[in-house]
Task: structure prediction
Amino acid sequence: MKTASAQLAAHISGETTTLATCWRVTRKDGDVFGFTDFDRDLTIDGIVYEARTGYTRSAIHTISDLSVDNLDIESALDSEALAAPDLRAGIWDNAEVLIFLVNWNALSQGKIVMKRGTIGQVELKDTIFKAELRGLTQALSQQIGELYTPNCRADLGDTRCKINLAALTVASTVTAAEDRYGFTDTARTEANDYWSGGLVTWTSGANAGRKMEIRSFASGVFDLFLPMPSEIAVGDAYAVQPGCDKSFSTCCSKYNNAVNFRGEPHVPGTDAVLSYPDGK
Result:
């Protein structure tokens, strides 16, 4: 049930209204941003809600059975706060969003909260972005606890794995780069796939501070899972750590860490459960 002050409720029930929609976005780093579909900036509770290019949004989809409700919003990248590299880097992922209505002609009347949620998937196309807003029930769909699996449930280097990643991390620089999807480092002479599934962290250049998983590695060439937000340039410094495919064989042969393996590689799978004697 939506609540509103008596003054705002009376305004809404009138013949004409002066309503505006506002979005308050709180990123994971604590920065707060405000946006509005009104034609000029609004200051509400000390936050400036920027009036930029208009946006389009889908209808708010809400169900009473605790299914995840959501809506999509589409707009142009015309605000200094919304930079394409930041969207690609995931800085806005899982940011908290509050959507509310106000009477722009009388802000003292308060607001009506329409929706709360978090930013989900973000798509970019030229100068247009499309963001998915997921409702609060999204958190209820997350898996709690663990299941029996043939693969390891720990992450390489965490407190359960206990591998010392710092000792395996290598710092180097880019010797050749063509695009944002990968680069070459002739100093990396490790065996093919040694760094596959690993993580590269940029320590200088346009992507400094960003991280990305490695899809494959061969002959000094790194292929990334996703493009970096900014161009990769020769001389950019990075640190790279190996990955793990979470299999028992890799844990034994590559890391000699079977004692800390957090899976059940010898538990019979579905094929064994459904098998039957064939009389031979």
